[in-house]
Amino acid sequence: MINEDWWIYEGTKTLEDLPAPPPWRRLTATVQRGEKFEPNEQEKQMVNAALYLRRPLLITGKPGVGKTSLAYAVAHKLGLKILRWSITTQTTLQDGLYSYDAIGRLQDASLAKNNSTAQPNISKYLHLGSLGTALADSKEKLHVLLIDEIDKSDIDLPNNLLHIFEEGGFPIPELERLDEEKQEIFTYDKTKTVTIENGKVHCHHFPLVIMTSNGEREFPPAFLRRCLRLEMSLPDENKLKKIITAHFGEQSKYQTQIDALVEQFIKLRDEDEKEVTTDQLLNAFFLKLNNVDVLDDANLLDALWQSLSDFPTR
């Protein structure tokens, strides 16, 4: 039987009864992403090794184990800026380095010529990508560069990254052709400019590069040889309870429900081999905190804990 007591839409409650959103959906909150993440000893070890060796860290693991959260947690803990480069099948190395609006410049140049005004500076039409920014904007301190889901890239991108990682810089041909020794161009988020000398981006502090992979493809041996690798495992019962506490605080009043939810979640994940993620468990507990008996509503719980492999891929 469906419990309608908590419904706002087609129910008896109103929007005034709507609770605050879950902690991870409070978009205007000051809590930074990754602040609640609790790394284990191996994760700490490999992040520190990557920092010392100035080597990229390739993190693999199933969806929802916290690969992306680890990158944000490191940035938060060390007080560093994080630059995120989300990879798709169409992503190229150029996307991460810089972009150049040649058409916009041509149009403005034509207008300037017709109006007998000064030609616009080329820097107006250039801005760095996330990788380019991580290298160029590094005089003061390093950045964390998150290359998310690199296994979705085309076959060439991992090898194309090798040269950039080894050299710590790259040329911008549009600037190399100019007579000016220095040019100011915008960074990835366009909040500031950086100085590019002689048309070349140069790294002062090599960024902490964290790449995530869901294991959807193999990587070239040359690429793997230059990376440190970390396999993140699924959280066990104790870790799941710690994650709940980290997000919601101590909830001794609901300890019985927490135990029941975690037990059922682990059974679904490990025994039934369903591909479910930790945030699905957190969603169920948040509803329980708001007096929604998810354990007594099989349809709702099935919807909340639907296996990722059950969703169509296209």
Summarize the structure.
This protein has twelve helices and eleven strands.
Give a description of the structure.
- By secondary structure, the protein is of the alpha/beta class.
- Helix content is 38%, strand content 15%.
- The chain is built from twelve helices and eleven strands.
- The chain has helices spanning 41-53, 67-78, 93-97, 102-114, 130-136, 157-167, 173-176, 221-225, 237-248, 255-271, 278-289, 298-304, and strands at 57-60, 82-86, 98-100, 126-128, 144-148, 169-171, 182-186, 193-197, 200-202, 208-213, 228-231.
- The strands form four sheets. The chain has a five-stranded parallel sheet with strand order 2-5-10-1-11, sandwiched between helices.
- A hairpin with a 6-residue loop joins strand 7 and strand 8 (193-197).
Mean pLDDT: 89
Order of helices and strands: HEHEHEHEHEHEHEEEEHEHHHH
- Estimated helix fraction: 25-40%
What would you call the shape? elongated
Number of helices: 12
Q: How many extended strands? A: 11
- Describe the main β-sheet briefly: 5 strands, parallel
Please state roughly what percent of the residues sit in beta strands, choosing from under 5%, 5-15%, 15-25%, 25-35%, 35-45% or over 45%: 5-15%
What's the Cα radius of gyration? Answer: 24 Å
Q: Indicate the structural class.
A: alpha/beta
